[in-house]
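Progress narrative, work stream C.
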Amino acid sequence: MSRGRRRCLFLLEKCRHMKQLKTAHAQLLTSGHGSDTFALSRLLAFCSNPLHGNLSHGWNLFRRIQNPTICICNTMIKAFFLNGHLTNAIHIYSQILETGLHPDNYTLPYVLKACAGLQSFRLGELGHGQSLKLGFWFDVFVGNSLISMYSSFGNVRAARCVFDEIPFRTAVSWTVMVSGYAKSGDVETARMIFDESPMKDVGVWGSIISGYVQNNCFKEGLVMFRLMQSTGMEPDEGIFVSILCACANLGAMEIGIWLHKYWNQLGRHPMSVRLITGFIDMYAKCGCLDIAKKLFDEMPQRDIVSWNAMISGMAMNGDGENAIRLFSEMEKDGVWPDDITFIAIFTACNHSGNSYEALRLLDRMCRVYNIGPKIEHYGCLVDLLSRAGLLKEAKELVLRMPDSSSHGRSEEAIAWRALLSGCCSHGQAEMAEDAAERLFLLEHHSGAYVLLSNLYAVAGKHDDARRIRKMMEQRGVGKAPGCSSVEIDGVVHEFVAGEERHLQMEEVHGVLRKINQQMDDFG
């Protein structure tokens, strides 16, 4: 390597922003190394970085390269992929095939990821066929990308076929397959694959822990976390976020506080935006709003997820006024809200009883931010209006909802259930009957029957109450048992009505008998 070339490459490696890169590029051109393949690849790689690069500059540079090598084409495909221009990445791949270049095991993984991102099953199958044609049948990098792609399409069977055909599986192979089953909702098979894995690195552990949490198996996620700790393996940030989510949903604050201390002990500072947001969400859902707000205020930078977590936390803790205030602050900071922000803010309006402010914000959501209302927004607003006694307006809003074929019957039922609950609270039997009839068509659930039956009983219409109970029996609708959980010394105990499976149930009954006795003694 010549001295001039070495100097140019050294300058490229030292670049931190586009101005420095352009200077280094000029040095390459003036020293006669402007067509150096490796140097051009490094230039494109820098331009592809979403944080400090410039994709349009990289694209202009690529178009001026005569007969680019497969290495340079790969860099451009990666650049488009990292910046979310997935169709352009596929277009470069098509050009590679047209010019007679041979894709390698670096090209195909990014192409397959682009197909997954586009949710194009047809393109994905073509990519799969091309990889077989090119002789990458047993390549682990291509194989792992195929497993991931088919899993993203929800086709776990195809993903499993690829997994079974890979002769030499890496930890990534096991991680992707466990994640694939978990994302499809099949946590039992995901656990079986995890148990079969001969190599369990932090990625494999993370896939099963996050799999349990994503499927609302929060206790199981905590159990797996403790098993991982028993092996001496340190969790990564992704596992911390998953466990914080489990703690938030279980109300397991003691474990959440321990996680905070554990992170500090590991000395991995500073926390990322994603992790701080996880702690904010956990503290807020466990009722420690002051700690959540302190963490939020100390954040050096915030994304929309952080704002949503804090607004939602205030709303669910009944601090609707401050949640609305924080939303206004977010708007002043120039942060563009998303559909989740408005679900949180409608919930805040619900807790503060501010129904007209909610309708004003609905109008702002549609006209200013061009966000179309989803079924979740309708559900929040119907609940809000129903609680406020504005039942006519609530029903009009329910009838404005999109057809259930576009979002699912169970989601439409949420809004009708909110209306039914409001009707029952305000003793509006006629409208309650209409809402209940619609619910009977949408779901096979005991809630609507019980609410309507109770309404009739309170109104003294006992014959109607019995009629609803009988209808419930005839249609085979069983009342779901109540369930509650409590955290004691870092352990979450779950109790289901009618079940006696808890190991300390005798002691629980003994305490309850003592409490009843004391209540009787005091009259």
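Work stream C, second folded protein:
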Amino acid sequence: MLAFFRGVEVGKFIRIPFSNCVQIITIPVLINLKLLLRRPLFNLYHSIDGSRSAKISMPRKDFTVDGHVARCNRMITSLSKNGRIMEARRLFDEMRDPDVITWTSVISGFIKCGMIEEARRLFDRVDAKKNVVTWTAMVGGYIRSNKISEAEKLFHEMPNKNVVTWNTMIDGYAQNGGIDSAMYLFEKMPERNVVSWNTVVSMLAQCGRIEEARRLFDRMPERDVISWTAMIAGLSGNGRIDEARLLFDRMPERNVVSWNAMITGYAQNSRLDEAIDLFERMPERDLPSWNTMITGLIQNGNLRRARKLFNAMPKKNVISWTTMITGYVQVGESEEALKIFSRMLSTNGAKPNQGTFVSALGACSNLAGLGEGQQIHQIVSKTVYQDSTFVVSALINMYSKCGELKTARKMFDDGMTSQRDLDLVSWNGIIAAYAHHGCGKEAIRLFNEMRKSGFKPDDVTYVGLISACSHAGLVEEGLKYFDELVKDRSILVREDHYACLVDLCGRAGRLKEAVDFIERLETKPSARVWGALLAGCNVHANAKIGKLAAKKLLEVEPENAGTYMLLSNIYASTGKWKEASRVRLQMKDKGLKKQPGCSWIEVGNRVHAFVVGDKSHSQSKLIYSLIRILHSKMKKAGYEPNNVFLSDEYEDEDFTLI
């Protein structure tokens, strides 16, 4: 089966073999580059010591005297490791006298398969044979299932505990934000090993308690490479990059993870030269080394160099591909993102994961590429990610941006009627879809329905909701929801919310209110806030406020040609031609030129693109004839064209109207 994606040149396509991407995928997820860059590398490697409670260990040695029981134990362990837990259970039930290793293997197998209740039923049986390993496995299983209170209760019931048990419970508290409980347990430990110390040092560093982490690190009776790496990652993650480097230079021995942690620290702190220098000096590199460096380059705005490094990689995994796709989407080069996605599918190596699909669908949304989005939807439907709420939300967004609101709504409704549980991400996605189409009342109705279903809105919900009110002219409703947001102390109000409110007032012509609001902000207004105000001034021809907004916007983005164009338009719309001419002259003196407007339509597997005043199309005469007919009908229907920009001195490509 073949599919097609658009290339850079309009009308040309890239073939994508779909058959390469229908397998079940179980690779880690990357949705946002910031998440990858900020995630401490220590967590990625800490499990090598076998102490992480999320990893359920099967018994490695069997000292059973009975040869038949020993053979059964080996078979049960093997079946459990391969996920064939019911076969393992049948073999267990057929055994006449299973020993403690048998019981531990089966219980651990159920835990590994996520069947914690079945594991507990076996554990509680009167004839169950248990030792400290069995108890610890059960505690770890509850932690793995995010049932920290059950794990805690079982931990306190244990007749005997070893250092692994204590480490497991401490790590469970750390994973669930119980920092003080973890520290209390750590202080009570009868004996500690290096894993105990590493766990609490890493925990404290990751939650910002870096001074405490450093004091503990200095107290450690012995340190291994993980101890040093955890402290380096913690210091760099808390902005103390020079201190981290001093520690890195003092390390008695380093492994590839240590180097990666230091490179990540430099990238996090926008010190790319040092990061690149370390990367080039590494005695050996693994895949995370390359991925870390590429992520750092993209996060610091050097996409071209990241691409060069990506092309030089000896081997790529799903993180490598997804990082590059996401990087191109974030800078607006969505066609290039889809080309990379196409290349990924054509290789026989890495397969897309949840993050890959979300980014690729985001590219389709930006391009309004319905055909490409539908093809990706077909790929998704053959993977385990078809029920992922993130992927479903990305699909809803894609169909909405491509004008298929009914399809987007159907996907959402199918989720409500199927066994797939809709979460807040899904609700946010459909509210944003109706906002995009200006259906404010329906967005509000969905918002109320979401609340009735027991979901608490978050910051993303309010961005979609206020935006919906703005596009639909529901000013009072939008103001009410913004006020509700501000009063909810559990939600952080961010610049997106401020921009939405300014846009709400600006579209309604309440520009003075918008200015008053901006002046009351405790933080410095962003380019998005001033841009929303300038757009409102353009709609309502307010030259005074428009001049202020443009001035502030140019302070933030001095090379933005669109700002000059909007201000010139505002002056022209109020008859201030000299001021408009002066702004245009400033723009030309700076060598700035606004990209002409472009639109496109896909017909019969070919993309037809048009720019302002374009007559290069082979059927341009017929197209312009139809446009004149439509224009005539619009005038008869009462439409008044805005010809204010058609003064002789502005007759260029930017002001051409049909």
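The longest helix spans residues 620-636. No further action is required on this item.
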